[in-house]
Amino acid sequence: MTTKLNLDPAVVAQARELAALAGKPVVQLARTHTTTSVERAVLRLAGLHGADSDGMPWVNRLADAVRDQTGLEHGVALPVWDAMLAGGYPDLRTLAVDASAGLVKFRLPEGQEADQARAAADRSVKTGIARIDAQRAERDRMLATTSNPPMPWIYLIVATGDIYEDIPQAQAAAREGADIIAVIRSTGQSLLDYVPEGATREGYAGTYATQENFRLMRAALDDTSAELGRYVRLTNYASGLCMPEIATLAGLERLDMMLNDCMYGIIFRDINPVRTFIDQRFSRQVHARAGIIINTGEDNYLTTADAVDAAHTVVVSQLLNEYFGREAGLADSQLGLGHAFEINPELPDSFLLELAHAQLIRELFPDAPLKYMPPTKHMTGNIFDGYLLDAFFNLAGCMTGQSILLIGMMTEGIHTPFLSDRDLALENVRYVRRAAGRLGGSFRPEPDGLVARRARQVLAESVDLLRRIGSQGLLTAIAAGTFGVTRRPADGGRGLDGVVRRAEGYYNPASQILEAAQ
Amino acid sequence: MSRTGIVRPYGDTTSDGRVQLSFTLPVPFGDEAERRLAEGAALQLAAKMGLDPAMVVHAKGMGPDFTFFIVYGRACHVVDLSAVAVAEREFPLLASAEVNLRIRSALGRKLVVVGACIGTDAHTVGIDAILNVKGHAGEKGLEYYREIRVVNMGAQVGVADLVARAAAEHADAVLVSQVVTQRDAHLSNAREMAAAFTDALGPARPLLVVGGPRFDPSAARDLGVDKIFGRGTTPREVASYLLHALVRSRGGPGGSSPPASTPRGGPGGSSPPASTAEEAA
Fold first, then answer.
1. Same domain, B245 and B195
2. Is B1 contained in some domain?
3. Annotated catalytic residue, options A256, A371, A390, A421
4. Which CATH number fits domain A149-453: 3.30.70.1400, 1.10.287.1490, 3.20.20.440, 3.40.50.2000?
């Protein structure tokens, strides 16, 4: 791709090196630790699903029982499959039922018994990996038999709380032109340390992410994709305390994109930073395998910080997300790095600044399916202003070659979108695409004009910030409130009690398979 | 312009009564017969809403089952300005320097504010707009006030944790924001919080202030809190209120501002003024 901003390749390379320097100690932390949710994801890959009469998933019951008896520092697999073999259990569920009743004595097998347990665990987990592989192949088949829509993909949200209401809304949105449907999760699911089970009909400002809800929605969108001759992608959220499990369920049920940011949970949900980085690495390994595009959450920084002052924190976070994503095996084509159109419209030249930021990111990450988020912070309730601002957002997206456009609603912040809000929003983006879809080809910012200078300035500020992070460490920088103006110390936040340092001989069949493939 | 008496909406001529509205009806907009029926349905609704005459200027089918309309019409209703219910601000709006000065002279120490989003609500945008230095609507947040010490506990804070922290910090005021309102979670959360503070600290509890876009600003007493702020509240309004409520009730430069008095008309206008700051002492 030809550069329009005259970015200095040496500065770009330096930014990447500094990001890697900042990220490396965190990856090392993830390599040497595990979490309760990573271990439960292993059990899910091996086919354990369902919940007890209290709605607590069997994966939680079984992992908790193992943790109580042997700890998790060797991984859940060795004690679980040893108990399966020793007790002659027909399946994991029967074992989990007995274990939660206190009827199973777990131990750490040694020698030949350990070999046998490892072999059995590996066989079981491979059935889950095979299903993820089959779902990826099925996506490719569907894309071939329907069609892959051209970018920018139009991304729309549904969020009724009831999966059976979400389905017709999602299908209607797809028929009206949406290429991607995101089912917003019930508020607070991030902080549940288990994944709810089954089809759900009640949620708070969203619908619970469950395996069954994933399956139902994907099946409905498969029907609609066939009807439209266009593959409609499905998105959900792999964040929060169950990030590895949700990622696994997404792979098993063929979701196509997943929100999966390296720092979002830390900053906006006060989840422990260490827990987040460990969970994130495993979840990204699963996403890599499943051919899922991740979406990162840099847009969120601009909802708490000023979009001009904090523009460089977006770039820094994107570089970190890229580093962590590649390290976990994601291809650049799976890195849906996020950013947003959030500059105060009262500011002179605000649209030029937006173009500078969007073009900078386009050029820094030429092969990434960038996800561009519409204005939310400066949507005032004047829906006419809001509609205009959304049109400028759509224009900036078209001019700078953004890949995924989340469609802005003029009633943002007023209510959950009306049917008509969504329809008008789609009319807006369709008009801009039709009228100016090819404007990017003719958009050449002056070499030393405001746009190019601003882009280079943001890049320079990003390098400065990365350098500061490098000398103090990423965890320290997060604790100091570098991102999103929120301070998050490494020993604070939720979920730290689920972090376990790996012992010598730690065994995780899923990680072995996923890492071997890289 | 008339400030009393009767007014009507203004389109392009005095008292022409012209208004616009848009809505969706669950009727199809397919063939000619369906379109006539749909537009007729829209006009019937407009007439029942008091628009006469009304004109459908835009109708568009959305999928097979819905039609979107834009309607202009002449409202047959009038507005009686003498009967308008207004919730007036019961405290003076002060500049930040004035707030700092008054806190120093009246309290002789920093005013302590603990803020949080409670329940499952993860939307800190409201509380952050009030507390963060960054502020909101061109006004710096409470962290910017030299004489206010801010403890922002962030999102999804448990009520028990909030009470404990407020007690430990000797909070003068607790600010809670609630955005999520499904099944009236914002109301039950606010009630639960108020009850917990009263149980734990009795009359010595801090001033309790809640805010969020869906609260009814006149329902403070019903929720057991001292003040409710609605949509569009700025940090300066909150700071001015805190000063008004706390300094007055703590025997500061007393009597400088009269007690709240907000005569209310309007339907069901029996609810008392929002401020019950006297309880906070």
1. yes
2. no
3. A371
4. 3.20.20.440
What is the three-state SS of chain B? Answer: CCCCCEECCCCCCCCCCEEEEEEEECCCCCCHHHHHHHHHHHHHHHHHCCEEEEEEEEEEEECCCEEEEEEEEEECCCEEHHHCCCCCCCCCCCCHHHHHHHHHHHHCCCEEEEEEEECCCCCCHHHHHHHCCCCECCECCHHHCCCEEEEECCCCECHHHHHHHHHHCCCCEEEEECCCCHHHHHHHHHHHHHHHHHHHHHHHCCEEEEECCCCCCCCHHHHCCCEEECCCCCHHHHHHHHHHHHHHHCCCCCCCCCCCCCCCCCCCCCCCCCCCHHHHC
Is B188 in CB contact (< 8 Å) with chain A?
Answer: no
Q: Looking at the partner chain, which of B63, B134, B154 has a beta carbon nearest the beta carbon of A306?
A: B134
Asked if residue B100 and residue B60 are part of one domain, the reply reads no
| Residue ranges making up the domain that contains B30 | 6-82
**Six token digits for residue A504:** 């010598």
Give the per-residue pLDDT at A484: 62
- Averaged over B86-101, what is the pLDDT? 86
Exposure string of A490-500, with b = 16+ CB inside 10 Å and e = fewer, is beebbbeebbb
Whether A299 is catalytic is: yes
Q: In what order do the strands lie in the sheet with B18-25?
A: B18-25, B66-75, B51-62
Q: Do both B137 and B270 map to the same domain?
A: yes
Instruction: Please state whether beta strands B148-152 and B79-80 pair in parallel, antiparallel, or not at all (unpaired).
Output: unpaired
Chain A CB contacts of B120 under 8 Å are 187-188, 191, 204
Contact A187 B122 (CB under 8 A): yes
CB A232 within 8 A of CB A225: yes
Residue A233, pLDDT > 70, answer: yes
- How large a percentage of chain B has pLDDT more than 70? 81
Residue A186: closest CA among chain B residues belongs to which residue?
B120
Shortest distance between the Cα of B59 and any Cα of chain A, in A, equals: 11
What CATH number does residue B17 fall under?
3.30.30.60
ipTM for the complex?
0.84
Mean pLDDT for all residues in chain A: 94
Q: Is B231 on the interface with A (CB under 8 A)?
A: yes
Within chain A, which residue ranges are assigned CATH 3.20.20.440? 149-453
| Same-domain check for residues B15 and B112 | no
Alpha carbon of B182: minimum distance to chain A alpha carbons (Å): 6
Q: Which of A265-279, A334-348, B45-59 has the lowest mean pLDDT?
A: A265-279
Burial grade of A41 (CB within 10 A; 0-12, 13-18, 19 or more): buried
Confidence (pLDDT) at B135: 65
Same domain, residue pair B266 and B128: yes
